[in-house]
User: Fold these one by one.
Assistant:
Number 1:
Amino acid sequence: MIAKIRATLPVCLLVLSLAGCSANVTMEEPTIPPPRVAKIPVQVALRIPKEFENFIHEENVLGREAWTINLGRANATFFTQLFGYMFDGLTVIGPDDDARNFAFDALIEPSIDGFEFSVPNQSKTEAFAVWVRYRLRIFDREGNNAANWTVSAYGKSRKQGLRGSDSLRRAAVLAMRDAAALIILQMEKATGVSKLAGGALAEPSIEPAKMAAEPDVKPARDEAELDFGVFAIGGIDDE
Amino acid sequence: MNETTPLPPTWPVAVSGLLLICLGGCVTSRVEDARENVTGLNEGDAVVIMAKSYHQGNETESKYVTCIEDALGRGSAGLRVIPRQQFVDSLFPWFEPRTAPAETKGLSKLMSRPGVAQIVEDLGVRYIVWLDGDTETVAQGGSLSCAAGPTGGGCFGFAWWQKDADYEASVWDLEGYESAGTVTADFSGTSFLPALVVPIPLIARTQAAACKGLAQQLKAFIIQ
């Protein structure tokens, strides 16, 4: 019996050491609390892109560890919940749906421009950090590009436990909450979305059926003029 | 014929116990407060313990905040403590790391926002305590090596490390929208790990001591 244990011990140690070289983190569906702000009086259509249905980020850290973060539908749930709280009306449409079949004042198409994270080995701290950069493209009911806004959010969580998977998951949730806070407080200032309730900006310059589904559509106004990010810390001045 | 007197069988236990007391409890401490305004609690008043924002470089551990919450609420003279997550969720998005006010001068504007003052009143929150600081290893040394094989294993050597726990608690009074003062706790502890086949950890519980010390002083500061 002892000989058998001795024979299997090295194999077990090898398996354990190999298992320690990679980590999988699966995000649960995030929950955003109802915000204490007035709703924006706009009927919004939210187009969930295909990438939000099963977003997976993989990264090798310094050639030592392989991390896989499976956000699944977390982003789809996040934006559906967030915009449901923010606007008077919300219709969720799929990536292949024709927007002309729906009634709305503004069509919002979110996407992920960047997703990064750091682990304690990299940052030489005790914390996991997650950065996520969302892009919000907003169109009027005629398909004109009304705004193109990037939102950079950050979450940080101290390492707990041996692997730190829970800490990375927590950092990702905090990054999404950070994005939510920024979007809630700066959306109107950054995009002027409420103006779309009064009607379309101008005559449609692009085919409405294709709007938002194709990232290379030509915007109605100068992209550089509309593409900007907002970052503030320690209380947001909304005036 | 010489007879040797056997030592009492309890001596190893006694020596080990003494060693544990001497080495395991090596924590030095300093707790101070600086009062700016009169404090006190009315019936039903509650406190919230928050960590300062990581956006401003703060690293206060979540478990330390929980420890302070528990310590303040414990006992017959315990304070009414509102769990910070409940408070933050109730006032979303005004107390997120990015949006929380960094100074008391932002309080009056925050309270004037729709629904905020009402929720604070409903929860009965009188004081917000902002924690800043962390526990970190400031020095370490020694050498310890372990080996394992089919016939067994063991460790040999000696290692030590020193941890400093430096925290500051800023107390904000939501009645007058002003700072009531600060309480600081500086604790330092050294842990040892001698090993002769079996490692014997002699751990200084620096952070736990800093939690207990700060919580006691904080409770006295608020109750006055």
Number 2:
Amino acid sequence: MKINDLAVRIGGQAGDGSLATGEILSRYFRRIGFYVATDKDFPSRIRGGHTSYAIRGAQKKIYSIGDRIDALLSFDEDSISLHIDEIEPGGVVIYDNSRKDIEINREDIKKIKIPLANIARKELGIELIKNTMALGVISHLFHFDEVIMKETIKDTYKNKSEKIIEENLRAFDIGVEKSKGLPLMENYSLQILRGEDDTLLLMGNEAIGLGALAAGCRFIAAYPITPASDVLEFLSKHLPERGGVAIQAESEIAAINMAVGAAYAGLRAMAVTSGPGFDLKTEGIGLASMIEQPVVILDAQRAGPSTGLPTKTEQSDINHAIYGGHGDKARIVIAPGNVEEAFYFSFQAFNLSEKFQVPVIILSDELISWNKQVVKKFDLKSLKIERGKLELNPSDKGKEFPRYSLEDDGISYRTIPGIEKGIHLETGDEHDIYGHITENPVNRVKMMEKRMKKIELMKKELFPSIVEGEGEVAIISMGSTMGPIIEAMERLPKNIKFIRVRTLFPFLDDVKENLKDVKIAFVVEQNYLGQLEDLVKLNTGFRNTVGIRKYDGRSFRPGIIERKIREVMGW
Amino acid sequence: MVNINLYDRDTPTWCPGCGDYGVLTALKRAASNLGLDPTKTVLVTGIGCSSKINSYFYSYGIHTIHGRAAAVATGIKLSNPELEVIIAGGDGDAYAIGTEHLVHIARRNLDVAYIVMNNQIYGLTKGQVSPTSDEGFITITTPYGSYEKPVNGPLLALASGATFVARGFSGDPLQLSNIIEEAIKHKGFALVDVLSPCVTWNKVNTYDWYKENSYQLKDHDPTDKKKAFEILLDEKFALGIIYKKEEKTFEEKVFRKFVHSPLKPIDVDLSIEKIYDEFR
């Protein structure tokens, strides 16, 4: 009996509507009080090509779709060939045989063939509505609460016409009707846990957008790029009503420079991109470091180098985010591990960037950016805007404001154009305290030290690692891999200490501290070269590491991590 | 009108005789005539000799990255449309490394003026060919003569949708200051291409050469766009306001309800809770 944990994969050709079906299913899970994890797998093209969407709902907090699925809903042959082995024994495959009937070779699962598209066409005259019909089938097989499911459908389509809502509800009913007599999934039980409606279902990119809005970000410039465009799209909708600006720039380069300009003018500003765009932004980020302007940049990592796998996940921009660009520069690189953190990190990124007058890079990865998770409504009361040494009403300091005054902590007072006593220059050239260009070596040393001094100072306010468990065997990771790691740990027979690094630059001392009694550390990351592993070794001096790496563009599953640790440890 | 000395800043380090002195004088005169408030003016520049102009002109100033002045200026103007934003730089900035931004700032019709000091050579890097150098022009990087046709910056700006296109000559700072004044006053994107000789590295396109190869526009109707295209295709450089038309600015289109002023303090935006409905 499997209780309160169900993973469904919906597969078909792009345009078949797998994502829309998955969306309704994940909303249903939230409504019955479950946590959700999702994983999109689709090609970089508009129509055609196999697409699949895995949705898992569970009573326990989950951040991963897990190892296997319980149900496969397939609208094409590819879904069968690619995912049939993924089904848990005792699970079910639902195959739409309208296009073609095929042989399914698994004896340990239930096999249901139903011509959904044909029925949809015949009964409702719309083939695409087969999706909602399929939800009816799943609902019946797994004893979903049909009332809540219908509420979910209605709510999902609430901005569509009455007719569309009616058609979908009808399709759902037909799906339920047609499944009568099919073998029920009696070995599964999903309880209705819904209590207070205090949760949200959203993806990392939406959380980042919300965090930015909450922080008072009023400017975003971006060039469309997968998987970061969602943030631009979200803010394009919500900034104008707040008097802010969302601009689709002519290029990645334009976008970062616009954001730097906006920050200079005093708005909280951000630019969002993925690796290929981050490449182009390094010069602009360098300018922000040099003129000490706060700007927030999202790098939602995808598989590289070059165009790589545009719609697939990876964590291979770690070095780039930390070191990208010429010269010594102060910056902050933080990596959220889940959707909830994506919100709070996004909010705090704006505070940090203003307090330390540096660019802050939020290093997400495709899985966090796109993964839909259920989170508690954000605790906005706990949040505070901190703008550091911004002076909106400076006292008279002479003809020019000493924008780069040498203060003990390295952070100068900052003012913005339009302010009466604030006139000064800013320049990417080395400059004196008024921002005037100078090549004087004594000044250069002072200014360099002033900027670099901030690096030590900011360490105190950055996000320490999250440590779970105790033991001589450790797992180290960053970002989205936390989900499968936590589940792997639950299955392993011995104690493990899990250290999730959340600040990549400046690297915090707590990682070394946490490795004190550790004998061996597995570093789990999604890249080939082991960029996180190198970073840990460099900063902690800890040598006994074993890399668990993945670079096929698909997310980690708990089993991969579990097996590798068992193999090395002989457990 | 305010005292022109208000805009004095550092002493320029340009070579004696550099055309950019004429541009600086013209800019100060235009600012003085318009009574520009230095606390509400931002002079945004790129990289190169000419881009150092904000070290010599008293107002807010930001000296950015090579080619990116227009992009930075876009961010500034959109953050605070109350500011008078002026962009200045050279032909390398505007017509080579930053060409993309010129096209797009023009088509957006952002309300800023862009002064391009065009000397048909790379000066600060010591004498390489520029995007506006003539075909056959011999420089240290084109010892056999340039193989490329020059970029026609004002023509490009006009074709991209600029609503004000003019050309001045730094040998005539009085006319130039009038043009700059009009450009700043113009509501919308204004490009001012200035023939501004480099006396050190360009021995061909000198003051005398420009005098011989330019002419004053007379009895020209600047609202005639077709005529403006024709003028810009002339072999010789026409001096004066070539095109001018009022159109809705980018800011007017962007800010439909209100502008969030960066000069005001901010608080945690609790109104995001209204968006929660999207996530249920």
